[in-house]
Amino acid sequence: MRPSEKPHKTVFAESSDGAPTYWECPSCGFLSGDPRFLDLEHACPVCGATGVERRRFPSDRVRRLDHRIRDYQSQGDGEIVVILVMALLETILEDIVDRMMEAQGADLKVRRVVMDSQRSIGVRIGKLFPALAGEEFEEAAEELGYRDFPKRWRTMREARNAFIHDSPFNGPRERLDAEMGADAMVLLDQAYRLFVLLNNRFVADGKHRS
Ligand SMILES: [Zn+2]
Q1: What CA–CA distance (Å, rounded) separates 8 from 19?
Q2: CA–CA separation, 110 vs 117, rounded Å?
Q3: How far is the CA of 144 from the centre of ligand 1 (A)?
Q4: What is the whole-number distance in angstroms between the Cα of residue 154 and the centre of ligand 1?
Q5: How far, in Å, is the centroid of ligand 1 from the Cα of 13?
Q6: Who contacts 117 (Cβ-Cβ below 8 Å, separation ≥6)?
Q7: Pick from 5-9, 57-61, 165-169: least confident
């Protein structure tokens, strides 16, 4: 029997100038932006754990990259912003897929082999995610309130690829530089929240079930 059947609700981090700060329950992987979660005596709403130190999410590596992206954005360098935001989203996706595999019992060796052999973002989203979640990424995003996210992410990846491969754009270059940078920042802020929701649904609950 599960220790707790109480429904729990994700608390988003308060907005800040940089990357949001979440805290992770090391027992079940639940992520919360609730400052009370910092208090070790405040029980995890999913597994009930207390007295264990909670790790910060996202990682320091992601936070440093986030900081640099915001610098470029403030300088109006939309092209670099799009390229770096896409790199950051791929890092966060890799992290979530890795956590989902771990929650389902895959050890580090297996996870490394899978991630090394499935490097394409299209395959990770289109094949790996559904295999682990039991539903398509698009469905999961829609259920969690981010229906447009997968399409916007795809469009942004295409723009990034156009920048990198110097292929023709579907619009004037000035528009891409200015507006795509701003769009990428919106996507980044949404991505943090969506990935926390995905984590709490497919990782925290998944661990809890096993
Ligand atoms: Zn927990």
Answers
A1: 24
A2: 11
A3: 20
A4: 33
A5: 17
A6: none
A7: 5-9
